[in-house]
Amino acid sequence: MPRSTSRRRSALAHPEVGEIDLLDVMHALSDPTRMTIVRTLAAEPERACGTFPVDVAPSTLSHHFKVLRESGLIRQREEANRRLTALRSADLEARFPGLLATVLAAYERTAYERTASERTASERTASE
Amino acid sequence: MPRSTSRRRSALAHPEVGEIDLLDVMHALSDPTRMTIVRTLAAEPERACGTFPVDVAPSTLSHHFKVLRESGLIRQREEANRRLTALRSADLEARFPGLLATVLAAYERTAYERTASERTASERTASE
What we know:
The structure is a homodimer. With about 130 residues, chain A is mostly helical. Chain A has 6 helices and 3 strands.
């Protein structure tokens, strides 16, 4: 069978809603860079790949997108020369009701504490 | 300060409630054996280590308990010659409200589907 002419697009595998596996989702959400990507997407519908507030090498970022995509958390599509990424919020909600919102709320608590302790540390340094 | 005389007990490190990290919890819950341990403990308060319905080597099981303990999901204590394990439900609820219940409910959906598809497959085999 001849391969698709749109080779690049066919390489982007996305699980169907009913195939989304909880353990894959948990694994995808166990990394700080991937959590930052998901939090960023929760705040806006679609975003180009190079515009996320993460500080990792392009190959590492590409790996993180792959893990997120194959877990079913994000959907990616090509448009002109850009790859656009969106959170599959509705699919996740249909598959595992309340999960994403609960996890994101839990992470916000941690993020707030982290920011607060970093601020305290930098104030301490500044006053020394 | 002198070290505790109960060296073995002091080797079982448990994070304080306020130290429980969400990413560690997500990682701990991304494995099927660890998920089975947590689901088993959700149904009963405390259990001896060798009595979990999992089929893995003792050294592997020991590793899984360590990951769960260090993430803050379980508490282990020695009593006579047994090590008893309990889920830190109240601590988890205080730290990340609703998280454990939501994740376990999500996993039950998956577990049900898996059982149903295994049953269908075995019925198909039986009728052949």
